[in-house]
Each structure stands twice: as structure tokens, then as C-alpha cells.
Design a protein that fits this description.
2 domains, Leucine-rich Repeat Variant, 257 residues, single chain, 8 helices, 0% strand, mainly alpha
Length: 257
């Protein structure tokens, strides 16, 4: 019996030791778990704070984007207003240019009219100084019959008198193309330098044979040749005409002396 009791006591002691060891290990696990829980809470709080910060930054970015969108809309509105203003300015500029062109055309017509009036006045003043037969032919240049005007000019062309030039210049614009042709031809035959600007205008005549006569007379008088082709298209005729105009503007004063 004594042995059984000692054995039982030994087992109890062993169980107590084992229990204490288990308790110690449990307590260690509890401490470890508390450490893990504390660390988790610390990291969780940090993550939450970081997330909150990110959310705040995102909200600020969204607000900035919203403000930027408003700025873009404002800029688009201003751009639209500027484009409208630019279109108005361009239209005003085009209108101003059209007015300038119309005024320039009117000035050109007026200049030609004044020139014709001056020539007519000069011709009328000089008419009294001619012989009777010449004065009679000069009066026939004003006849309504185109054939009579042409015949009178043909007879006058034989005189080769520079005083007759003011009477011949207007015939370059005569309604009858044969009279215009004969006038251009006569001025070349006379080699009348003063006739050059009038012959240049005839380079734009509606009839090719009139343009050709004017071109031949210009070449004979000036010895210049700018490659003008009397049978060219409208663009080529205009280009050749402009070359002659430019040459005369630069050399006309010295050439006429």
C-alpha cells in the first residue's frame, strides 16, 4: 500500500510539473499573441491612416481636376469669342480691300477720262493751225460712220505730223476695230515715242490683230521685247501688259526726252 501511494504521489508531482510547464507555454503563447495583436493593431492603424491620407489626396486631385475642367471650359469660351472676333476683323479687312479696289478702278477710269478730255482740248486748240484739208479730215474723225472715221485716219496718216498725235490717241479706243488697228499701226510708222503708253494700253484690246499692231509698233519704237504674245490667253496677255507697264514706269521719263 505504501508503495502504491508513493507511486501515485510521484505521478501527481509529475502531472503538476507538466501542468506548470503547459501553463508557462500557454502564458508565453498569450504574450506572443498579445504582441502579434498589438503589432497588427499598430500596422492596421498605419494602414488606415495611409488609406485616409490617400483618400484625402484623391479628393484634392478630383477637386483640382474639376477646377481644371472649369478652366478649360472658360478657355474654350474665350477661344470661341476670339475666333468670332477674328472672323469679324477678317471680314472687315476683306470689305476694306474691296472698297480700295473699287476706288482704285474708279481713279483709273477718271484718270483716263481726264486724259481724253485733255487730249481733246489740245486737239481742238491745235486744229485751227492746220491746213483746211487736214482740219476737214480731223472733223471726219468724229463722224458716226465707222468707215468714214477709218478713211479719214488713213488719209491723215500720210502727213506724219506730231501735232496730229492728240487726235490719233483716242482712236486706239474707237468702237470700230479697224480704226483701232490703223491707229496702232500709224503710231508705229511715225515712231512716235510719246505714243508708247497709249500703245501699251492697246495690248489688252479685244482683237488679236489690233494687239499685234500695237506690239509691232512698241517694238519698233522702243526696241524692247518682253516675250508678249498677242494670241496668248488672258493670263499671259495680262502678264505681258504688266511687264510693259513696269518698264514704262521706270524708263518712260528718260525715253520720252
Amino acid at each position: 500500500v505504501h508503495d502504491d501511494f508513493a507511486q501515485a504521489q510521484a505521478e501527481i508531482s509529475s502531472s503538476l510539473v507538466t501542468g506548470r510547464e503547459s501553463q508557462v507555454r500557454f502564458e508565453e503563447r498569450v504574450v506572443l499573441l498579445e504582441d502579434v495583436l498589438t503589432d497588427f493593431r499598430r500596422h492596421s492603424d498605419s494602414a488606415v491612416a495611409s488609406a485616409q491620407t490617400s483618400i484625402q489626396e484623391l479628393a484634392q486631385a478630383m477637386a483640382s481636376l474639376s477646377s481644371l475642367g472649369e478652366d478649360i471650359v472658360s478657355l474654350q469660351s474665350r477661344s470661341s469669342q476670339n475666333e468670332s472676333g477674328l472672323q469679324v476683323a477678317e471680314e472687315r479687312l476683306r470689305s476694306h480691300r474691296r472698297a480700295q479696289e473699287a476706288l482704285r478702278d474708279q481713279v483709273a477710269v477718271l484718270s483716263k477720262t481726264i486724259q481724253k478730255l485733255q487730249l481733246a482740248a489740245t486737239a481742238q486748240d491745235a486744229q485751227d493751225d492746220f491746213p483746211a484739208e487736214v482740219s476737214a479730215l480731223l472733223r471726219k474723225l468724229q463722224a458716226k460712220d465707222p468707215l468714214e472715221r477709218e478713211a479719214a485716219l488713213e488719209k491723215l496718216s500720210k502727213y506724219q505730223d506730231e501735232r496730229l498725235l492728240p487726235h490719233i490717241y483716242p482712236l486706239l479706243g474707237d468702237p470700230f476695230e479697224m480704226t483701232r488697228f490703223l491707229a496702232a499701226h500709224t503710231l508705229g510708222e511715225w515712231e512716235a515715242r510719246a505714243a508708247v503708253p497709249h500703245l501699251i494700253e492697246a495690248l489688252l484690246d479685244d482683237y488679236g490683230f489690233v494687239r499685234q499692231a500695237a506690239m509691232k509698233s512698241l517694238r519698233r519704237i522702243t526696241a524692247q521685247n518682253f516675250g508678249y504674245n498677242h494670241d496668248g490667253n488672258a493670263e499671259a496677255l495680262q502678264a505681258g501688259y504688266e511687264l510693259w507697264k513696269s518698264w514704262w514706269a521706270s524708263n518712260g521719263t528718260n525715253f520720252s526726252e
